[in-house]
Design a protein that fits this description.
The complex is a heterodimer of chains A (288) and B (225).
Chain A: E1 2-5, H1 16-28, E2 32-35, H2 44-47, H3 52-69, E3 73-75, H4 79-94, H5 96-108, E4 118-120, H6 122-138, E5 147-151, H7 171-178, E6 182-183, H8 197-200, H9 202-218, E7 223-226, H10 229-236, H11 239-246, E8 254-256, H12 257-264
Parallel strand pairs in A: 1-2, 1-3, 3-4, 5-6, 5-7, 7-8
Helix pairs in contact in A: 1-12, 3-4, 3-5, 4-5, 6-7, 9-11
Chain B: H1 14-28, H2 44-48, H3 59-67, H4 71-75, H5 79-82, H6 88-92, H7 99-112, H8 121-136, H9 141-152, H10 155-169, H11 183-195
Helix pairs in contact in B: 1-7, 8-9
Chain lengths: 288, 225
Amino acid sequence: MEYLYYPGCSLEGAARQYDESLRAVFQALGVGLRPLEDWNCCGATIYMSVDETTSLAVSARNLALAGRDGQRDLIAPCSACYTVLLKTNRYLSESPELRQKVDALLAKAGLSYRLNVTVRHPLDVLVNDVGIERIAAAASRRLDGLRVAPYYGCQIVRPERGFDHSEFPETMDRLFRALGAEPVYYPVKTRCCGGMLMTTFRDVALDLVRELLSCAVENGAECIVTTCPMCQVNLELYQDQVNQAFKTSYRVPVLFFTQLLGLALGCEEKSLGLQRNLIPFQLGVATA
Amino acid sequence: MIRQSHRLPGALPPRERELRETFLKQVELVPGGDRLSRCLQCGTCTGSCPVSYAMDLSPRMMIALFRAGMIEEILHSRSIWICASCYMCTTRCPQQIKITDLLYALKRVAMEKKLYPDRFPVYLLSNSFVRLLYRYGRNHELLLLLRFQLRRDPLQLLRMLPLGWAMYRRGRLALWPKRIHGVSAIRQMIDAAKTLELPREAAPLEFVPGAIGYRAVGQLPEKAV
């Protein structure tokens, strides 16, 4: 089993531990992960608001590179990359006019894209391809009793219903339950973290983050587990600012789901980049 | 908040017509964008939106204003920039209207026509991002924030120092950007996109003088959905 891997810009910076833990988990499970050569930025949520055709072409370059490689499945761990790449596929297949334009632009880069790549999220691959039973069998350490708030963020399950329900997904809940953890009741699991609003309209974003933190804490979660670099930064790095703005005292560790999964699989803490988290997390030590 | 215009009933002022035309061209490029005309004004979008409380015009109101021939009000609102594109409205809309994608279309019109205040954060951020992508082929978080804050409010950089330091100490702040090999290809694509014109199959949008309100919706080209 081997997959093509599109890390995305965040995983080289603020979400480095996501990249590290993802590789460690795939290695521990014996699943191959081959980075896509010379990938470029997907355009994120920003380029779409400047120019549609250019943003699609920029993102399609990655798909064209992947398509040339011959591997069908491309793994995109960042929610923004995942949504943008999926959306590019959908737009190109639904609109002949856009397809024509993007083809003309890709030709300038000496590429062509035949819509032959499937964009996958690592959570989807791990649970639906590798399988929960196989993961549970490979686990060397139980997460017994650990109360986690499974936070999916908005973009991996929307706009279309992808590999799970678009408002109340269960994939991550099932995964961690099988490893002994107790996913808490977390009705805001796909609510927006504010994304780039943290930079542009901070007061709005802080309010959204406060809601996500308070729901986790009130339901007894010891940590929040997420799938998205943007969510992780907003929830972790800005926790102090939320505390300041709303006179609260949250201190909840925010992990990437691959970090917690890696712990269960017996990976070394360093290989999971746990030392990079701002709010430390240790298995077996209640922090909330 | 909403400008009371003294226009004759049924007539669209030239400015409104121009903005409307630009917007409808963008809508044409959104697959399924023409479902806009199916809006029932049920308000599910507004009720589902996690940030509608911070908007001056709710998503439902925006559609109503568009129908009433008041797109200029929408383009000048704070609302289109507050959308963080979480797609909740799109998922829940009973008429499958691509609300988030239509908001992107509105943002593009506002960007194109420069309908935002001076030193507007969303514009500065997008502009910095687009330039980085052109230069390196990838985004670089530190340069993006530096470039953005220097133009927005340099003093803020001091306030952000502790956060930056915390990230740097843990190896989460890459200091130097990476330039990809194919960056010249990307630049060629971006440059070419500016002048790209393909023969249009669809006839240019027809504007019936005097058609505003619900009749104006009929101007959206009907496509098989």
